[in-house]
Amino acid sequence: MRSLTSRRRHKAVRPLLMLLALLVTGTLYSLAAPPQQSSADTSLVATGKGLFTQSCASCHGLGGEGTSAGPAITDVGALAVDFEVSTGRMPKAGPAIQSAPKVNLFTQTETDALAAYVASLATGPAVPTKAQYDPAGLTEEQLARGGELFRTNCSACHNYQGSGGALPNGAVAPSLLDASAKHIYEAMRVGPNQMPIFNESTMPDTDVRSIAGYLQELHAQPAGGLTFGGVGPVAEGFFAWVIGIGALTLFAVWIAARGARAR
Amino acid sequence: MAKPAGLADSAPVLETTRPDAEPTPGRLAEVGNWVDERTGLGKVAKGGLRKIFPDHWSFLLGEIALYSFIILLLTGIFLSLWFKPSMGEVEYAGSYQLLKGLPMSEAYASTLAISFDVRGGLLVRQVHHWAAMLFVASATIHMLRVFFTGAFRKPRELNWLLGVGMFSIALIEGFAGYSLPDDLLSGTGLRFVDGLVRSIPIVGTWLEFLVFGGEFPGTLIIPRLFIAHVLLVPGLILGLVGAHMALIVYHKHTQFPGPGRKETNVVGYPLFPVYMAKAGGFFFIVAGVTTLMGATMQINPVWNFGPYNPSQVTAGSQPDWYMGWVEGAVRIMAPIEWHLGSTTWSWNVFLPAVVLMGLLFTVLGAWPFVESWLTGDKAEHHLLDRPRNAPIRTSLGVAGMTCYALFWLAGGNDILATQFHVSLNDVTYFMRVAVFVGPVIAFFITRRVCLALQHADNERVLHGSESGVIVRAPGGGYSEAHEPLTEDELFTLTQHEQLAPLEATPATDGHGIPVAGAGVSKRRARLSGWFMGTTVVKVSADELHDHHDEPVPAEK
Ligand code: HEM
Fold first, then answer.
1. Closest partner residue to B418 among A164, A225, A226, by Cβ?
2. Which residues of B492-502 are buried (b: 16+ CB within 10 A; e: fewer)?
């Protein structure tokens, strides 16, 4: 206590007090001041509009009203744009059946700008917050339930392990091994291409988190040896023949060629 | 050739070395004597141990099947100690957290326990499953070896039938095992077989009720499959294996033709000690390979599939490889279904599954008899055919393999589509045509290759082997010098019999009266001519002689 009293008159006290005062005033002001988001938003929307005209309007129309090459997207909301753009699906390369996910061409700010622009066209679902999709903090039972939900709703197309599967007419359900929790959330709400939409009334946010959490945990589990891409019995049969029968036949040749003949 | 070793009395290790006392038989020999005097096993063993076995790698393929069966018995007994064959529902409380608290059958829960909570359990499970795959695979290639070398001919037709029997019930055994863990893929497979049973016209539904004790899935099927899997079918296979072995000993092993090898002898090594050492060593090699596979390669990760639930399905549902061809046939079959009155006739399942499977086993079982009907050959055969010397049989075999392989590929049409980035529909349409066209193409290619190889053999016999030395004749022409073959090789290339095809016997005798009883019909004669006549006539002794009189430019 004594040392504190003696330092009260230290040279550095004044500037430090000044700093503190500034900090407090600044914080108070920022809390009290009217939100500036709308003006930031307008500039974001403007950037977004520019990008949209450049990369998207050729198919979706200048105002997102749709053309023969692409559907109307005025009411799909920021969520769908964030999903389609950040997974590299949009801008679509051409009128293929399915836009194979490729590298994302846009930075996160540009994606946000596009999303903000489309969101400004009409009301639609917003980009989910972390609390909506992040599986952290789920109990073991919730994760196990996520597994049940996944097997009931998703594995028919995406395979039991999420390693992907074939759909009719050349379409594929992609592998989910690298899908982030956010993309899983968004995909379920958007229902890209042949995938059905799982909306909030059938699949509340906690269930989506459980599915995402289940997949994350599943893919982090150690396996019982080499897994051959997790495609199941076809790969197992292939390796039984190639490695098992292959090795044993070589051994048979070796055994028959060797031995008592030397005597 | 090694002299056959005698029994215990002549083995030096068993002799006592006490110098002054009378030499008395060692302990082991005494025991041996004791047993021998009461059972007479000595005589049997002496004969058995002196049995001669020829040495060829392809004769070891059947042994792979035998050894993997033994491994299946050993690992299977371990699994039976922990597995609970019950469909009673429990809530999972084991150590795999991603299934915690889920309702599941006791069978599935105990399979999870074997995988995660029993020491060494996962290893044994994986070894058991790999050994099962290798068991059926080695039985298959063993059967192909027997087919292509003609080893099924008289007197071995019965042993061929035993083999076909074992092969077919091995599929049942494997399928039953695959169903036991009661995971999602097991259940999907069971559902497949349920559909197959129900597709049988008229009796299908009742058969289903019989098998499942009511509607699918019920609560009886796992306990029933368990008894079939660990008791009935292994017992049956064991009995058939015993009979198969006994017949091999009785018939003696076949051998490939060569100098000194006759229909009446067997050239090779005695069972004891040479062949036993080799065979015993090979058992440990098979055990080693399956253990290594079980330790390093994941198979049937049931915890990823989840418990069976009839409302769930998954992409990538496939049976084990040996049922893949049936799966493929069902996948590519056109949707033909009749609705007559209140009944449904599911030809789309019945034809590709039940009829096709029946067809394969019927053709396999009938072949030795069909062939002897075609050739009219009633003689015993202990010398094997070189596959090229039976061109039509070889070509039919390759055509059959091609057909099987295409059905098999069709069973993985979804995996082919995703792995090779082609359309699922295209793969399916292609396979629908390929299963019919592929075998025909394979037949003609193989026939061509066989005949070409026979021609090449004849060339070699007549002109000797190419020496690589180019000789310039005084007239200026160039030619390659050929070296004559050894007597041994000449013999090997020309020893095979070429019987004449059957000829039709006249339908009426000299007086115009119809001949009663079994003659050779025109059709049979025509088929026989096709089967036996499609071959290159081998070089006769006279031809060989004439050629040898020619001056051979063999200067080096
Ligand atoms: C030809 C012989 C056999 C074949 C082809 C075969 C095949 C199979 C297969 C494919 C499975 C599924 C394994 C898995 O969980 O991944 C299985 C499970 C099982 N087998 Fe066999 N098996 C054979 C013989 C035996 C024998 C002789 C026994 C017992 C004496 C046995 C006992 C078991 C048991 C208890 C299971 C269930 C345990 C589990 O799934 O973890 N098997 N078998």
1. A164
2. bbbbbeeeebb
